[in-house]
Amino acid sequence: MYKYIGVYRLFSPVCLDTGKITTNENDTYLLGKAKLECYRYDDTILAIYFPSGVSTTNKVLPLLEELGVEMTLLHDCDGESVYLISEDMIHIVHKVLKFQVKGKNIKPTSVKTARRQSK
């Protein structure tokens, strides 16, 4: 089932065609400020997805480096990028990205999550 990351709220992507949440239980992520997503890459590594482009990346990356978070660039294309971090750094990353905590006990596949994601 879901492998929770700390005490943060997990979300599951919504299918754009049907408006319903995907049925893949492993397709979950943490939602941060500026719609940044943090998801599991493997057992010890997390990936941070920057969908909005250069401005957010240029603001967030220096803050993370200042706090001592080691990041590896996985993908960078058309203004979107993905960086890999160690799962041990999740609480430090939370200080900058402010992952959602409210509703942490709601399952990622619940109707409440679908309503929130479709807004």
Q: How many DSSP-defined strands?
A: 6
Quote the average pLDDT.
Answer: 77
Structural class: alpha+beta
Q: Choose one word for the global shape.
A: globular
Q: CATH homologous superfamily of the largest domain, by name? A: ACT domain
Structural description of this entry:
- The chain is of the alpha+beta class and 119 residues long.
- The protein folds into two domains: 1-29 and 101-119, no CATH class; 33-98, Alpha-Beta Plaits (2-Layer Sandwich), CATH 3.30.70.260.
- 24% of the residues lie in helices and 24% in strands.
- Strand 5 and strand 6 (80-86) form a beta hairpin.
Concise description?
Helix content is 24%, strand content 24%. It is of the alpha+beta class. It is globular and about 40 Å long.
Describe the SSE topology:
Elements: E1 10-11, E2 29-31, E3 37-40, E4 45-50, H1 54-66, E5 72-77, E6 80-86, H2 90-97, H3 111-118
What are the main properties of this structure?
single chain; 119 residues; alpha+beta; Alpha-Beta Plaits; 2 domains; six-stranded antiparallel β-sheet; 6 strands
